[in-house]
Design goal:
Blueprint: H1 2-47, H2 54-57, E1 58-64, H3 70-84, E2 89-98, E3 101-111, E4 125-137, E5 140-148, H4 151-156
Parallel strand pairs: 1-5
Antiparallel strand pairs: 2-3, 3-4, 4-5
């Protein structure tokens, strides 16, 4: 009797696996457009500096770290970084999507060839990491939570992180 139950269980599980796999594939297909939106804005706006693409990726009321005004703030930040690091570029290392959110781990690279926060060019290479959580609705980013290790920039161009002693 135990053998019949075991064989029946194996047949039932084996029959469900293709269906579960199919459902997972459908869910993945639903999430891919959200990943593409995030990859798109990171490439077009951050890597290429194409601010004309902004409205195609972001809702009119997008929040950045719970604050409005992303369009002006992002443009200012990217222009500042490109001025100091003309070869400024981000590389996506990992990307995970679930529901309406996309989590991206990235690495930023560049060469210090312009003024950065009052620090003259050093010619040094920088590399630092960041994590982005973007929420997508109706095909656009509506909310962003981004964190980056920008202190690493100062350390890599030779500015100490500790304040001077008095």
């Amino acid at each position: 009797m135990k053998h019949v139950f075991l064989i029946t269980s194996i047949i039932c599980v084996a029959g469900l696996l293709p269906m579960a796999s199919s459902q997972a594939g459908q869910e993945k297909m639903k999430l891919e457009p959200n990943r593409a939106i995030v990859r798109g804005y990171m490439n077009e706006i951050i890597n290429k500096g194409n601010f004309d693409a902004f409205d195609g990726y972001f809702s009119e009321r997008v929040l950045f770290n719970n604050l409005p005004g992303l369009k002006q703030g992002l443009a200012s930040m990217v222009r500042s970084m490109r001025g100091a690091f003309p070869d400024f570029h981000l590389t996506i290392e990992d990307q995970i999507a679930e529901g309406d959110k996309v989590i991206t781990r990235m690495i930023f690279h560049g060469t210090h060839q312009g003024d950065y926060r009052g620090i003259a060019p050093t010619g040094k290479q920088i590399k630092y990491s960041g994590i982005a959580i973007d929420r997508i609705a109706d095909g656009k980013v509506v909310e962003m939570w981004h964190v980056a290790d920008t202190c690493a920039i100062l350390q890599q161009i030779g500015v100490t992180a500790a304040p001077p002693k008095k």
